[in-house]
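seq:
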Amino acid sequence: MPQISDDGYWQLIDGAWVPTEMQNVAVASGMEAYSPMDALAVNDTTPTGMGLLQKVANPVDLQHKEVEQKSAFQNKPVLIGVGAIVVIVALILLVSALAPGTSSLLDEMRDSDGDGITDEDEILLGTDPELRDTDNDGLDDDVDDCPDGETNWESTIISDFDGDGCLDFTEDDDDDNDGVTDGIDQCDTSELGWISSQSDDNDADGCHDDGDADDDNDGWSDTKEAQCGTNHLSSLSQPADYDGDMICNIVDTDDDNDGVNDENDVFPYDSTEWLDYDEDGIGDNYDLDDDNDAVLDIYDLNPTRDAAMYLNLTTFTTHTKMDYFDDYAEVYFCIYVNGLDHGCIPDQNSYLSLQTGTNYWINTSIYIDLNESVREHNIQISVWDSDAWDDDPIDISSDPDWDTEVIIFDSVTSLSPLSIIADGTQDSTGWDGELLYSLAPFDSRGIAINQYSWDFEGDWYYLDWMLDYTTYAQSKALPHAIDWSGVDTLPDAIDQYAAFAVTDQQYILDLANELRDMAVQEGYTSELQIASFIHAFVGDIQYQLDSIEHGSQEYPKYPIEMLWEQNGDCEDAALLYISLTESIGFDSALMLGSVKSSSDEDWGGHAWAVIYIPDHSGDGWYGDAPKSEIPFYFVEATAHYDGNSEIGVNPWYDITDYGFYDVE
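struct:
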């Protein structure tokens, strides 16, 4: 076996060093050939190498052979060079001819397609080592993130937004390469060259905050959140938006989107309601009684107002002499509404003494609460001359067939005041009078100030007083009927009447204190004087029978009804007086019985008040136990005649079948 040099490139054959196959391959790959002496000089300096030299020849022989060998080697340079070249070319052709994958050693070193990726790596990647652009998308494999992906397409900004060689539609799950996958990326083709982070993409939606219209991705743009005062970087901070129209409440002019601007909408957060005429907190669309006048809308011809009017009697002249014995007529006026008696002016059993041919100032107003279920109201005014036997009518109608003034009033369309002259001289039938009056329609709900006047001890007093319509309407809506079942005499129902007295409501307490203060300021400081002052106030409120609005049915009023409407009958006045005096510490009671004004009159039912005044004397009754020792004095609250009406004075001819009820 030939001796091989330590580097494996030379072998000793027949005493001469010749190249090994390894050297031939290396030379073919471009390595420069060198002499065996170079190999020995480098590798055989070890003792083993020296031993090899000693075994081969003595120093003399070696030197000789070396000279000879060197000479022989130098004599064949051309032959060796040509051979080497031939071998190299052959090897190159051989290597080139080998397909990638044939030799792993070659694959490691070779890049067949020159795309910068070795054949071995391309084989591992699954790309074609012999094609620079395996998938033919216009990007070489070394810059293509999907080198073996979809074929026969071209990478453009349309098909491959980030230019990574992956087809956006099927291969690339992050088209703009910002670290946010397209499934949740709200800007999947946004700017390139950045990675989504908390600092520049607050909501991690793939949109750079500088260009993101909604940084917290809560559905509200940053601009709107700035307008609404919420935090545009927190999805937990969102504007209030009642109607969900993406206009926050503080900006939205119609928060409930019902077509009515908030400034005109009583219910800005209820799309089904926008008005509340009676201000009871129930919208008119749902409210069964929009004006709260105790008449349901389905029956109410004026559903947004409580129709009422003042009938004002202004002046009157008697043109015809009514009595044979003098030039004076004893005149009183009676009012009828829709066929029902509405009372007479002045109060019952009184009149005005007017000289014939003289125009007198009457200056009296009568409150009329119009029936809401009736549109056209028949209003009649009759004028009478009081006589000892039969009272005579005074003609104030221009119609020869009538003495009474008749007017039809439309409560729906007639909303403005009417001034009218009723002149009986126009029909030439005699017994004539002339009345100037007016009708002043209004919404009773709109009464803000009620005006009262009364006379006491020779002076007139006036009071402007505010009442609450809601309290009035609520009281009016309560049941008022008297249950007559089991009642044999009027006193049997006295507890039902007494239930209408109100002693603890604020409006009564406020008014009673005001009247007491007025009396004290005028120097009327005793209990009798204060009680009498209040008596004058109540007694001068217009008398009106119940039959006007309620037919023959008895209709006791709560105190606020009499105060609001400024009229009432005997039980209404008695209950108002009792309520006022009881609320400021007096002890008052209600009495019912039968009365007559003369021996010739029939008995009639009546109600009056009684009051305890210490150290007083007069007509009255002792109370029931436990007040059987306390005297209660008569108060005729129905009317007050200054100088004649006093506490403890009974104006009736006779009284019988009476009952007493202590109101607390």
